[in-house]
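Backbones bend. To wit:
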Amino acid sequence: MRGDAYTSSVPKLWTETIATHRREVSDAILASAAELASEQGLRSVTMSQIAQAAGIGRATLYKYFPDVDAILVAWHERHVARHLDHLRLLREGPEPPAERLAAVLEAYAHIQQRRHANELSALLHHDQHTAPTQKQLSDLIEGLLIECREVGRIREDVPPHELASYCIHALAAAGASDSEEAVQSLVAVTLAGLQPSETVTVKSHRHSKLHHLASHG
């Protein structure tokens, strides 16, 4: 009986072992390729170099990836996925919506700053690779904006999806920031643009009143 139980457990154990081994090999390939690309430049890396750095044969490498571009794209996608996971964690925190929104926008600004400081990440950040990610990012921020609007912390004269786009484009400027103070200032300015628009409404009302008086004066 015990022998049967042992025998039946072997296939699962074997499958888990193979899956773990494949993940380890894939991780080694991605890490080696990223390191080589950072050192030599994207177009100077060869499959032979990656195989040697990862400690595997070329034949094994080709079983995982067809070429260098595929490896680097896979590295970039995993890199971006980790950023999104971090932003989702901040979004789902226990804090009030406005605090979570501020935390997400600040974290995203720092991601943009580091991305431009990392040559490999910046070079791989092409539109065809980032479109799905941008949609996920926009949806994440929009969801937080809707939560903030429900408690009166966000302006209501602009749709949440447009405000999410505003945040993403505004914080892209963090890529040119060279200090923590500059990033913090950019985040503060972005958040200020999201505030309820009582001031804008008052100014608009005053302008309309002055225009009416001038027309009938």
